[in-house]
Target: mitogen-activated protein kinase kinase kinase
Amino acid sequence: MDVAMAAAAVVSRIFFSLKFRTKSKRPRDVRLASVISILLMCPSTAMLHFDRLKGVGNMWMFLSTILFISGSIYLLSAHYYVAEHPSLVRWSQWKKEKWIGSGSFGQVYLASYRERGFFCAIKEIRIPDPDSKEQIEKLYWEINILNQFSHPNIVQYYGSNLTDGILSIYMEYMPKGSIHKLLKDGPFKENTIRHCTAQILSGLAYLHAMEIAHRDIKGGNILVGPNGEVKLADFGLAKKISYEAAIHSDKGTSFWMAPEVIKSKFSGSGYNLLVDIWSLGCTVIEMATGEHPWHEHCRHGEPCHNPIAGMFRAANSDDTPEIPEGLSEEGKEFLRQCLRRDPRSRSTAAQLMDHPFVREYFAAA
Model:
């Protein structure tokens, strides 16, 4: 504020000196310009110059008063806007509190801004070679992705900074943690599954409309807020593609991977946005059972806890993950549409939003 006042004083001195030097026959125009400039830069300083308005006329006095009031309201509203939005807190003001988990490529910490009672999650990613342009570009990919989003079912991005080879990404804090964490207390009831699935779908439909695939949908990357709101997180593997275009990578978590993702590494066939729909189906199974989607059997009737075995079954058989018997017929049919091995026959996120399993949620929204 002191800098703004000093700047306003300098500008005002320049303008008022111009009033005496100008050859214009309308000195009131110069006076008006100076007053408006001061008011816009610093309303409090402008009050010191109101005595110079003598002779300007009632109209100019009225206009100046309106500008002063507007400027004061703007400064007050800006102050309270900061109080209500953690995204405007400077990164240096966040205080790291404790470690809360791991995400793709980094560790996640809880941080606070005690002056306002704000909290955020800080994802710290150590750069192996800070001088590598390629590594920097890869790490900033997630930031660029997050910065595009504005959706109630996607975690909010606050900002980032790079210090001593560590990239810190500041994001919305979700106090209840991930769905994976909540499942440690047991499988979800179907109403809860419907509620979560609808919100995941809403976030996916938004991403897919932007031609962005998440590529790592699972309970561990879906966070829950204080009021039960569900949001997609951890976009370290996200990729901008389309329904038609194919990409070639085996990124993702093995038990939740679509068959075409696993095959793409060897066949070069590629895949599209619909890999997220398969992973969504696997996540519904996860919520219904508390286990990963291939937990029943992998081969020869043996329980499957080996990610490689799960990938082998997904890629080299005609099997799909077993649909939980406890689900309603609507839930089972929803899963069948998600878990079609041929992605060309798999439903899109927008289509699934109209499915009876989740339709009621969107009708009430």
In short: The chain has three domains: 2-84, 87-172, 179-364. Residues 179-364 form a domain with the Transferase(Phosphotransferase); domain 1 fold (CATH 1.10.510.10). The two ends are 44 Å apart (CA to CA). The first strand starts at residue 95 and ends at 103.
